[in-house]
Design brief:
35% helix, alpha/beta, 11 helices, seven-stranded mixed sheet, 401 residues, five-stranded parallel sheet, disordered N terminus
Length: 401
């Protein structure tokens, strides 16, 4: 079945994560108002910040293929955070991949492809521990992941040396494609494109004359904050620029610093596990400035944990929300709606399945297939330059309401 065209009612959130409900003593909340809020797509922009129409994806490549594929002894792998504080982001990717696999394996009884799961918890050190297990399995001809920039940086040379194509649905640090890896492909725009668009949107559409940029200590957070700060120029107020740590729950000092600066907007570069308590404490501290953050926070867990404090937050992502037909299939299979990176997980898995269906049986064949690939996915076209970057980068603006 071909994916229907993207309608106005694109779906990315309103989805429920599989973690438990309830407030906590760490500054996160889960009030009843959060159940009525969702992360809603607002506008799709190109790398120059210009609005572009959603793609008509009636010709999107179908993971089911012809239904006549034959294969034996080949598998795929997924590496990313499947447990831990940011597990929802990795699960979104995995569940997108599962949908593509389900369609493929149902349609192709003589080509049953397994995707082996490797949980990194989003931790670079743990990722380096599982990477040898991935490359040591000769049946694995392609890897979906790693999910986070830090773990990709830590393991990329391992995968590259093993000749294993690794396609990330979510790692956006720009320097990843500067390492000379020849088997790495990024399935979305990097932070250079996102950061530039963010700055233009905050100073233009939002009208922010003063922005406080706050970053966490991850490769993703540091890299994205650097780009946003540079692109904001004079609008980035150094008096309230701040750094926080992964796992931090008490943001009192940073809240006081921001409150004193009286900014128009706050940009947070990091993940939802810290973004949720941070925005909660900002609102409790009387800071009313527009809160904005990137793809690391763009997950229903941010809304769930922050509760009413998430209201009107602006979230961005170089990822594409799922069109209604795909969202319904995803919901039926996984028991929850698609989230950030779900579409990229689906599309990248589809590409690797298409390679297997074409007769690819090893890593070298997968690499050549992906290098030469040019095909329509859900919401974007996939074609890579020699460095592994997409030829076209799109940024979606979302709002919590």
């Amino acid at each position: 079945m071909l994916i229907v065209g993207v309608a106005a009612a694109l779906v990315v959130a309103g989805c429920s994560s599989k973690s438990t409900d309830g407030g906590s003593s760490d500054g996160t909340t889960s009030d009843s108002s959060s159940s009525a809020m969702s992360i809603t797509p607002r506008v799709l922009l190109d790398a120059q910040g210009s609005e572009v129409p959603a793609a008509d994806v009636t010709d999107a490549v179908n993971p089911a293929g012809s239904g006549n594929a034959t294969c034996k002894g080949v598998s795929l792998a997924m590496a990313g955070a499947l447990t831990g504080p940011n597990a929802a982001l990795g699960q979104n990717i995995l569940y997108g991949a599962k949908l593509a696999l389900d369609k493929h394996n149902t349609a192709n009884p003589n080509c049953q492809v397994e995707m082996r799961q490797f949980d990194t918890e989003g931790d670079p050190q743990k990722a380096t521990q599982v990477a040898p297990n991935i490359v040591g399995d000769g049946s694995i001809v392609g890897l979906l992941g790693p999910a986070f920039s830090g773990e990709t940086k830590a393991t990329g040379s391992i995968f590259n040396q093993a000749g294993l194509p690794f396609l990330t649905a979510s790692a956006t640090n720009p320097t990843l494609t500067e390492n000379g890896w020849t088997t790495f492909f990024r399935g979305l725009g990097n932070d250079n494109s996102q950061g530039s668009v963010v700055a233009k949107y905050l100073t233009g559409t939002v009208g922010a004359g003063k922005v406080c940029v706050v970053q966490d200590d991850t490769d993703y957070g540091v890299g994205l904050a650097k780009v946003v700060t540079a692109e904001l120029g004079a609008a980035a107020d150094p008096s309230c620029a701040a750094s926080v740590k992964s796992g931090q729950k008490d943001f009192a000092a940073t809240v006081s610093q921001i409150k004193a600066a009286e900014p128009d907007a706050i940009w947070y570069s990091g993940y939802y596990a810290e973004a949720a308590p941070f925005v909660t404490q900002l609102r409790e501290g009387g800071v009313t400035a527009t809160f904005s953050s990137g793809d690391g926070s763009n997950d229903p867990e941010f809304v769930k944990q922050a509760g009413s404090a998430a209201q009107d937050a602006i979230l961005t992502c170089p990822c594409i929300p799922a069109p209604p037909a795909l969202a319904a299939e995803y919901q039926d299979l996984n028991g929850q709606a698609p989230g950030v990176y779900s579409v990229e997980g689906y599309d990248l898995t589809t590409i690797m399945l298409a390679a297997i269906d074409s007769g690819v049986t090893d890593r070298a064949g997968m690499l050549e297939f992906v290098k030469a690939y040019d095909g329509q996915g859900v919401g974007k076209r996939y074609q890579w330059n020699p460095q592994g970057e997409l030829s076209n980068a799109l940024i979606q603006i979302y709002e919590v309401n």
